[in-house]
Amino acid sequence: METGTILALAIYFIAMLAIGLYAYRQSSSNLSEYMLGGRKLGPGITALSAGASDMSGWLLMGLPGALYTAGISQIWLAVGLILGAWANYLFLAPRFRIYTEIANDSITLPDYFEHRFADRTRLLRLISAVVIVVFFTLYTASGVVAGGKLFESVFQLDYVYGLALTVSVVIAYTLLGGFLAVSMTDFVQGIIMFLALVLVPLVALNVVGDLGTTLSIVETLNPNHLDLFTGTSVLGIISLLAWGLGYFGQPHIIVRFMAIRSVKDFPVARRVGMSWMIISLGGAVATGFIGIAYVHQTKQPLADPETIFIMLSQVLFHPFITGFLLAALLAAVMSTISSQLLVTSSALTQDFYKTFLNQHASDKTQVLVGRLSVMLVAVVAIWIALDRSSSILDLVGNAWAGFGAAFGPVILISLYWRKMTMPGALAGMVVGALTVLFWVFSPLQIDGQQLNDFLYAMVPGVAFSIIAIVLVSLLTKAPDNVVNQHFDAMEKQLKS
């Protein structure tokens, strides 16, 4: 490994730890500060931290690898994500920000569910916390796999050591500064990712020649790679577009909406966030697609398509710039892992420990438990990631579908339909989660394909969740007056 590359990565690591230390001095003793940053994030940090925590290592590895392997038909996934993120900003974000503050200043998603439905049984809090811990542990494992592959590919470091190194840095700044550290590092990481995804495909295209040359090479190798529809089906396109439905239920993304300082900041946050996302996804798509032509033209060996970004970063740039570009990949991995660790930690702390074990726990005790929870989840994620053959995109896809189906319909409908009941919410959550688990792990097949290969689990998961919510809500007792009061207060704030 070149000295310049090592120097650039060292600077990156030190910067992340410095941000964590700064955040520790600002927000480590108060639970609301540690878990939600005191609800005072600006629109720029909100947008880029949401984007960076959303995209993870799959943006620079999974998506380019999919384009490299299957061609332009995989772009439907990016289209679905763009539409879903835009709808999330427009239809969920403002109402969710207002309602979580009105509903007893909820600082976690299970908090919101309990207060929104006046649930005295605490079943919603318990089930939603279980869903968060289960699916986020899988999701965190996908980021750990990406980190392990990075260090294995670039440094020829043992895969297991790569896992440990990736997680250790993330744990350090997450333990120190909590939500503020995670959001600030995500902001910096989002900028690094953006620049890298603009730079790498442009330089690669210049080496290949131009867009015409790229298209010609790809067509010669496999004409189907240029067809938006070849190699997929109507159900396949629906499956890719359905990724966008997941945005309504992703705790690590919508928690940013809870933390923004004012609803009036959302238009700016939406413009910044969507611009970042469209350009970044375009860069990832271009990296995989142009990579096909580059590898063919230069005869550069590529053992794993998911490492096309890493390979281009190593061969096209000065070692110091290579270090910067690899830092972008680490940024994508770490930003998501840190966000997921923090949300899972908040579920274990607020929704298990405080609710069921120590109801009178002080803020200091809860922050300590939160930090211990970060360590616990990280260890389990490493254990899952020890399977070297794990596909980053598959792990992300399963967790994304789980959250999208379990939480998405419940959250969105709860913000618009005041007659939705606690049993309806519980039914939607359980049915959505179980449908995804069945769809992903069932041995059943359709036309010789596993269910999740035939149709992405998000589609049946969301559909059955909505049906369960509506049917059970209509058959059970309407919510009490406190829900109507909260709804009236939310509508009043939205109009003002």
Automatic annotation (TrEMBL):
The keyword Cell membrane applies. Its main location: membrane. The chain crosses the membrane at residues 6-24, 74-92, 123-147, 159-180, 187-208, 228-248, 274-296, 308-333, 368-386, 398-417, 424-442, 454-475. It is found in: Cell inner membrane; Cell membrane. The keyword Cytoplasm does not apply. It catalyses: L-proline(in) + Na(+)(in) = L-proline(out) + Na(+)(out). It is a multi-pass membrane protein. Keywords: Amino-acid transport, Cell inner membrane, Cell membrane, Ion transport, Membrane, Sodium, Sodium transport, Symport, Transmembrane, Transmembrane helix, Transport. NCBIfam families: Na_Pro_sym, sss. PANTHER family: SODIUM/PROLINE SYMPORTER-RELATED (PTHR48086), SODIUM_PROLINE SYMPORTER (PTHR48086:SF3). Catalyzes the sodium-dependent uptake of extracellular L-proline. Belongs to the sodium:solute symporter (SSF) (TC 2.A.21) family. This is Sodium/proline symporter.
